Amino acid sequence: xxxxxxxxxxxxxxxxxxxxxxxxxxxxxxxxxxxxxxxxxxxxxxxxxxxxxxxxxxxxxxxxxxxxxxxxxxxxxxxxxxxxxxxxxxxxxxxxxxxxxxxxxxxxxxxxxxxxxxxxxxxxxxxxxxxxxxxxxxxxxxxxxxxxxxxxxxxxxxxxxxxxxxxxxxxxxxxxxxxxxxxxxxxxxxxxxxxxxxxxxxxxxxxxxxxxxxxxxxxxxxxxxxxxxxxxxxxxxxxxxxxxxxxxxxxxxxxxxxxxxxxxxxxxxxxxxxxxxxxxxxxxxxxxxxxxxxxxxxxxxxxxxxxxxxxxxxxxxxxxxxxxxxxxxxxxxxxxxxxxxxxxxxxxxxx
Length: 351
Hints:
The protein is an alpha+beta fold. Helices cover about 35% and strands about 30% of the residues. The strands form 2 sheets. Strands 2, 5, 6, 8, 9, 10, 11, 12, 13, 14, 15, 16 and 17 form a 13-stranded mixed sheet that branches.
């Protein structure tokens, strides 16, 4: 008999379970992330409320399903709302004929109401028809509201590795062509203005991120604690800051994320890039410094969400390419609603 309860294992066991599920479902059919224990610790082990929202399904002592949510405050069209974002949804393929997914979903909604959380946000991947998330989430039209379609920016750092990884033939061809055209990223012209993040940067970085979020229609509500966790968790993430006029005026935050396609690669996933207060040349140097750092650490591809809050000019000038929308950003209102959930200006990251 399937029992729904709070996950009681560690992040190593969770990593192994999620990767087993995604490999069995998608290997050779579509690209998918390989979640490391350090990455999951960064995302899902920050406070007691997060742990309370690690909803799992067990068959006796065997883990067969997992649906977490990460608490987050959001700015939503001028309002500040307590909610969550979700990812990592995994159900053992041997149990797909049992109602494990819907049981996890209903229990997660119950816990949201119990904790006064009014909103859950996340992504459904629509780039490949075999993706299970789109089939589950996008059919629940009464509970799940599409916000907008989202594409990505990509910049190949090792085109040969990306060609071996790519599943679609056109992507393989594009990678071979880019090897002839792109070359290595240029170094920054003024590297003295760029340095690694330190804990004392958390407050000014939070101010930059929260200001950017308030310029969007939907984004995270940033404070010093959240900034320190997102930008400074050294086991999973890397952040560079740019100084201008004696203060921190820009940042780029990215993490190594293993992906599996036809072959494995490591993506440098850019979560946040803030250049609003920087001169153009310093913004360009900030991105170039990050690309050089990714390449030195063995990453094969740089990637960022293509949203209005991700600055166009520094990415375009450093040879990033725009990829058409392959994700649907969706909202699941719990005790909160809007007349129209469609929004263009987002300040969020990809998971």
